[in-house]
Structures are given as structure tokens and as C-alpha cells.
Input
Amino acid sequence: MPRYLVERTFDGGLQIPVSAEGAGICLNVVGTNADLGVTWVHSYVSEDKTKTFCVYDGPSPEAIRQAASRNGLPVDRITRVSVLDPYFYQ
Amino acid sequence: MGLLERDPFLTELSRRLQEGTAGKGSLVLVAGEAGVGKTALIQAFSRTVDGTARLLIGACDPLSTPRPLGPLVDIAAEVGGELDRLLATGEHRHRAFRTFLELLQHPDQPVLVVIEDVHWADEATLDLLRFLGRRIASTRALVVTTHRDDEVGPQHPLRVVLGDLATAPAIRRITLPPLSAAAVGVLAQGSGLDPVALYRQTNGNPFFVTEVLAGDGDGIPPTVRDAVLARLARLSPAARALLDVAAVIGTSVEAALLVAAAGAEEDAVEECLGKGMLRAEVRGYAFRHEMVREAILAELTPQRRMALHRAVLGALRGSEPGPDDLARLAHHAEEAGDRAAVLAYAPAAARQATRLQAHRAAAAQYARALRFAERLDPVERAALLEARAFACYLLGELDAAIQARDEALAIWRRQGNRLKEGENLRWLSRLSWRRGYRSDAERFAQAALEVLERLPPGPQLAMAYSSQAQLRMLAFDADEAIAWGERAIALAEQYEDTETLIHALNNVGTARLVVGDERGHALLERSLQLALEADSEDDVARALSNLGTVAMGMYQVELADRYLTEALAYCIDRDLDANLFCGLGTLTVIRLRQGRWAEAAETAGQVMRRPGISPITYAEVLTALGCLRVRRGDPEVDSALDRALELAASVGELQELGPVYAARAEAAWLAGDLTRAAAEARAAYGLALRCREPWLVGELAYWQMRAGEPPADIPDWIAEPFALQLQGNGQAAADAWYRLGCPYEQARALAESDDPAALRQALDICAQLGARPLAAFATRRLREMGARRIPRGPRPSTRVNAAQLTQRELEIAQLLAAGLRNAEIAERLYLSRKTVEHHVSAVLAKLDATTRTEAAARAAALGIVAPI
Output
């Protein structure tokens, strides 16, 4: 399954409440993704919370976009990536 | 005693029948291993609804060639009326399907339809199941089927139908489990048998358990077969012989037939009934359980089996058999080894099957006849081969069809029958083309012409001309295609050969349209009309598809959309799955060109997930997908376009090669590799010029120009928008694209302009589409011109603003949705609290919400704010 890096911009800044509600929102995203065969691995969030870099596994770039659309998430750019680890070459 | 451990299933069936009565029909597929009690469940359920619901029962035959549409024929006999009439006359089975559906949609009382043993169902019945399954939710009926899931492997035709129905609403699979140890214990009470041993030996299989319990009680037989045989051993020889005959006859045994075939006395029948081997039915008798019948069949020696089949065949013939009995007669004839009977009945059974569009059954019957045709007169054998080839062709089994035609051809050559030789050569051409063997197709078409032109003209020559027309049309050789096609039309009209006329009109019409001759429209429309009248499904789909494809090739996306929508609706209505996915391929390209990119991605995905797609459709979809990714700036462009090129090259036609090279040129250009862009565009340019295709020539010339290597030879008949761009008139080109309804091409033309306003407009369109690379290009150009206030690029707020919130209201809505209180929002945005309160009221009002939580949910649902 290919891995993708998805860059997103949130003008108002990304806010997920640290609460049951926030957990519920995250799980909803996971569920919607599952229907499309997309897995949210994890995300990196910039300090001012306006940019995120999200790592996804999925079958195609189109599936990533469809999942984003269903979850109401913006997509700036999708890059296909593979993992490189500093200890890989040891 | 009622059935053990089946109450939940009975309850569910009751509920579904009630829902059906209320207008929500459903299809329930009851699956389970042999002997687990599927029939028992259905019968118990039928008893509970007896009197309150109408019961329609159809059975599938356990024959190698079952009666085509057997269950529907059974039901029609019960229902009578229009349905019965339609099946008896030769009308297209689609009407019978529709009539049956209407019956289920407007019944007088609740309807329960039962079709058992669908693992034996013939192909036409499976088509009926697919048809019903897709439409059942709109009926007032409950349709219940049973099948042995241990006999339905991955390659089984029923598996395909189940797959097709996987996403249909109102379909439910019930798998009946064997009995639990406790239930076996209950049944074993008072029998003297150890319930634990009984459970272990039978694994809870209800049939096995009841067989053992009905036995002598001296031990538990090791297998079901042994249990059954033990019971059979206690019958008198006369009764046993009777059962042998009944087993050969089948699951449903007509009383008169049994008596005639077995010469049975009443006592023997009574004994079988009394000892529970047979049970009485409406039409005669049936085995208590199919496994009893199978056990009996397995015990027969080959000689005894043949003799039994002979007896049954004789009795069946003597009983004034009708057309529905032909499949059975052919089956018994083969099992009896009666060559004359096979040659008498199998072809007739095949013709009956063809009348019901049961092509697989027809092909199988012809194959059966051919197995016994070695010593048959060669002319008759050739006729059988040709009939089989035609059935295989309709079935889509082209290799088998080609093989049969080859054999027939050899016979006609030996006979010196030139007319027949020509006809088969022409068929070989058509089959080879379908199969993808293009050079063979050309070779055979040429040979057919050579043979047939030496003879007086006739329908065969008309078809040969039409085949030539088709091959030339696909090669974009319009002049030749039209010439051949018009000769075909003239002959076809003269000999009133409608099939050839439909084919030829399509070829000439398409050929004319492709080179911009509008007269082609009338011809294609006429082909469509004739095909609709003749109920020639494949030809209808082909005509609509061609009309759509041709329009799409000319970027007439509105018109193409309309034709494709009609084509897809027809394919869905007639369950023409193969044509449907070809149509979806074309729709993908239409959506791409309309700028409806999310939908284009959706249909592309649907096509790609389907196995067995033709290389042409695959190439088309991969090209569109590659184009989509390039325009969005998404990854995996090369993997899509490289594969598309491979497929297009294997077919070798401009129709696929042109678009893929254009897409590759575009990809290279957007990546900044001008040399490669020019090379890719050049690769197909010569071919496009030779084919005189104005749009592809225009597009390929355009890319060569953008790459800085314009071709020397640009004809004046290229398509208008590209001609304008090549002349440097970007604005006029953009207007032309706008009128055609192609936003990306419009933006592309605007982006070449030196006018900042045009560039800004291009950026707007790119923002709406999500066309990042083109937007970047336009932005760069604006910057180079020294323009100020360059828009930052696509942002969620500009893309979707369904509630018409202002920019400030959007900001506040996002913070509100994130859970901030008014004071916090005020602090964050450097506003006064009063101002924030005012905006929050406005936001709530516009989102039609009464609380902040409600507003947050609405905003998320509308895509205005990101929920996380």
C-alpha cells in the first residue's frame, strides 16, 4: 500500500479539543477513511497550527482526496513517499 | 415438534415479508451445507404464511443442462397471464423479466417467491436473480433463494452474481449453521443412542442426525451416505427399483412419468411413501431429501444408469413433451447414449434456449450434439458448428466461437461451397477483431471479400463490406470506411438484412462524424432506432456509445454527457455489465474535460476495480487518470501514463495513442521538460495527420508549439480552439473553450495571455478546480509582469461557502467550531466582545442554528470549517 504525505493549510488554525469530543472527531475521520481503504498514520502540526503534514497509507492519490473531502479537510499537496530511516543503512 | 434453533431465522423472514408488504421488498439468500435444513426452513416459513401471502415456487434442475429459466417457467405456469404468454412466444426475455417485476411491485396480496437450489441455476436464471436483486427494494415481495454454499467455489457462476449484488440494497445472506450439541441431544432423547457420539459423528448436520435416528438404532453409521444406504437396504426390491428410476428422473418426479418409466405397481409407490423415501407433491413426488437421491445415483453402475435413462427417455417421449422438456430430453438422450435422440433433441433444446436469450445453455446443447455428430453428414455438422459459434459469440466466448468457425470453414472448403466459405471467413474476421487479433481480422476480411465478390451479391457480401467498413473506420480511414459502408448499406437494404444494416449505418455514421461530417449523425441515429426496434441490445449500446465517444472526441462535452447518460441507463436497465463499464470509461474522460474532477476520479476507480476490462477501456481510463493527476499536481503520473501507453500501443489505434501521447506531452511540459514534451507530441503527430483527425492534430501541434518546436506542417483544418492558440490568440481560444464547457483548457489558454486580468481569471478557475501546477505557472507569470496582489492559491474558505458567510464570519465560525468562547475569539482577532457577539449571531442565523454546537456541526457538514 503506497504511503503519501499530505500538506494542509488551516487559515484559522487547527483546533482539536482535548476531550471526548475531540477523540470522537478523530475516530470519525478514521471510520470515514476506512470505507475508502485509507489509513491515517499520524500528522505533524506546525507551531502556529496553520500547517499540517499528514502521513497516510492508501490505494491511490484519488482515494486520499476523496477521504479528505468526506472529512471536510483541505488538501494543498500530495506527495508519494517511502520511509527512510537513519539506521536503515547500518 | 418445530424446527430446533431456527426461530431467529423464521422471525427474520417474517419481518422481511411484512416489510415487503409495506413496500420495502428484499431478497434473502439462504446458504448452508447440504442437509443443514434449508428446504425445511423454507417449508416451515411457507406454512406460517399460508393463506396470508401468495406463494410462488420455482425449482432449479440438477441437470448438466438445466431448463433455461426453469424456475420462472414454473412460476409463470402458476401465474398464467402475460408472463406465461411472454415466455411461450419468442419475445425478448427482458419483457418477461419486467412483467415479473411489475407483478412483484403491484401484487394483490403479500408475495413470497421461493427459488431453491440456485447453485444449479442456469445462466438465464442467474441473470434473473441479478435483475431482481438490483431492483427488489422497490417491490412488495420477499424473494427467498437457497443454495449449497459448499458447492459454490470461487469460479462458480453464482459467485459472480453474488459479487454483483454485493452493493445492492435490500439483499441479505443467511447462513444456516448446523445444530448444536444440545439440539442433537434433544433429538436423540429416547433413541438409545449416545448424544455425544451422535453429535461428534454427524457434526450437527440435521439430515444426517435424522437419518441415523430413523434407522435401526444399531450404531451410528460413519457417513451420511452409509446412513441413507442403510435405510434403503430395508426396502423391497420393487420399491428400490422404483427409487432408482425416480433418482434418474430428477428432484421433481411426475407421477405419470414415474409409472410409465418404472412400470411400477401401486404397492411399490406406497411403500416408498410410507417409509419416507418419497413424499407426495403437487405435481407428483419428490425425494425427502436431495442427498437420498444423490446416494442412490452414486450406487448405480454405468450400465444400469444408461438403461434407466433409456427407460425415462422412452417414457418422456411418450408423454407428449413440450418445448420446456427439450433440455431434459437432450440430457436423458446423452446419458442413455442414444445418438439419434441426442441429434434430434439437443439442437431443438438449443433453439429453445436461444429464444430465451439463454446463450450458455444453447452453446452447451450444440456442444452436446457435436459430441455425437462424428458420423453425421458434413453439411449438417457444419450447420451445428455455425450455430454453436453464434451462441458462443453472443456469450462472449470468442475463442470457442473461433474454433467452431474454423472447423465449419474447413468443411465448407472441402464441400466446395464458396458462399458458406465466404460467410464463415467474414465471421472469423469479426470474431478476431473482437478478440483483439487485429491482423487476423484484416486477413480474414480480405479473404472473405475475395471469395464473395466472385459470386452473385447477397447478404453475406453485404456483411463482408460492413466488416471492411468497420476496420477502416477504426483505422480512421474515413474515405475507405464510407465507401465500403455505403456499398454494405445498399446491399443490406436490397436484401432486407436488418442486422447488417444496423452494423453498416453505425460504421459509416461514426466514420463521417469523426472527420467532422455532420451527416454522420442521422446515420448513427437511424442505426440506433433500428437496433431499439429489433431489441438488439449490443447494437443499441454500441450506437449510443459511439455517439457519445465521437462527441467527446470533439470536446462537445454537453452532448457527450447526454449520450453517455442515455447509454449507461440502457446498460443498467438491461444488465449489460460489460458495455456499462466501457461506457463508464468514456464518462471518465467526459468528466475530466468538464472539470468535474472528483467525479472523474470516482468513475475511474469503478472501472479499474472491475476485472476483465478490455485493454481499450483500460487505456482510456489510465490516460484520463494520468491527466487528472498531472493537472492536480498529484503523484503517480508516470505509472499511469506509462501503462496507458503500453496498452494503447498493443491495440495500435489513434483513438488510444493520440490522447495518451497528448497527456504525456502535457505532463512533460508541466514538469518543465520541454524537449520531452515535444518528443511525446511528435510521436503520434504523423499518425494523426494521416487520419485527418482535427482535434488530435490540433492538440499535438499545440504541445509542440508550447515546447518551442512547432511542426512545419500544420494543416488549416485543425480544430478551432487549438488553431486560435497556435495563432497566439489566447483570449479567443479561451472563449471557445468556455463555450465548449472545458474549464481547464480555458484556464490554460488564459494563462498564456500577457494580460494580468486574464491571468487572474485563470487563477480563479485553477482555484476552483484545484489545478495547482497551472496555478503556479500563472502566478509566476504574474510575478514576472510585476503585478501586485497575487492571490495565494486555493483555500478552503474560497472553495466552499455554501452559507454565504463573509470572510470575517468564516474566521469566527472556525474559532467557534473549535470551541472558543466569545471572549477568547475577541482576544484572538483583536476585536471587541460586542463585535464578536454581533458576528456570532449572524453566523448562527446564516447557518440556521440555535446553539453554538449546532452551528459547529452545520459548518462542518457544509465543509466550511475543518472539523479537526
Summary: The longest strand of chain B covers residues 141-148. Residues 378-395 of chain B form the longest helix (18 residues).
